[in-house]
Specification:
Elements (H helix, E strand, L loop, with lengths): L2 E2 L7 H4 L2 E9 L3 H9 L10 E6 L10 E6 L4 E13 L4 E11 L4 E13 L2 E12 L6 H27 L1
Antiparallel strand pairs: 1-6, 2-8, 3-4, 4-5, 5-6, 6-7, 7-8
Length: about 170
């Protein structure tokens, strides 16, 4: 069974009731980082995810769709990209999606914003997560630590993944 999620725009990443931001430098060019974030089966380095598959054919753009399964695979979500910008002249790339439907109830909104730009040594990665639970959710003093733990794993896995490119 699928449960519909509510759409939102880019401003939601700054006002969401639950959010997490990864802001790190990674030792690869923006083009290499962007290629990793936009390839089929991307995020295979994240333990929290089972699979990530683009369901739209390339080239990707606003309107692109993707399907994600969280580890161990029984929670699934369909996503719709509403931001997709690739500026090769400045080596700045970004995209953002919101969830369209999820296989479990209780999630009202979910989305991610990813931006890659040049840094002194490699790239700066800004990766924002935003969500809102529907109905009675966990109180912030509980949901914050749970979200920080889950997204902290994504951050650690991502840093470790891109470090392998530097050798």
């Amino acid at each position: 069974m699928a449960y519909d999620l509510e759409p939102f725009d880019e401003s939601y990443f700054d006002i969401a009731p639950m959010s997490y931001t990864i802001d790190v430098n990674i030792p690869v060019s923006p083009e290499t980082a962007w290629a990793e974030f936009t390839r089929q089966n991307t995020l295979d380095w994240c333990r929290a995810l089972n699979s990530v598959e683009y369901t739209s054919t390339p080239p990707h753009h606003v309107g692109t769709t993707r399907s994600v399964a969280l580890a161990p695979g029984f929670i699934k979500m369909d996503e719709l990209f509403f931001v997709w910008s690739e500026d090769s002249a400045t080596s700045t790339y970004k995209h953002a999606f919101h969830g369209v439907r999820a296989s479990v109830p209780g999630l009202k909104k979910f989305g991610e914003y990813t931006e890659v730009s040049p840094a002194a040594n490699g790239s700066r990665l800004i990766w924002k997560f935003a969500m809102e639970l529907g109905g009675v959710g966990l109180p912030p003093f509980l949901s914050g630590p749970i979200a920080n733990g889950a997204f902290g794993t994504v951050k650690t896995d991502t840093i470790k993944h891109f470090a392998t490119f530097a050798g």
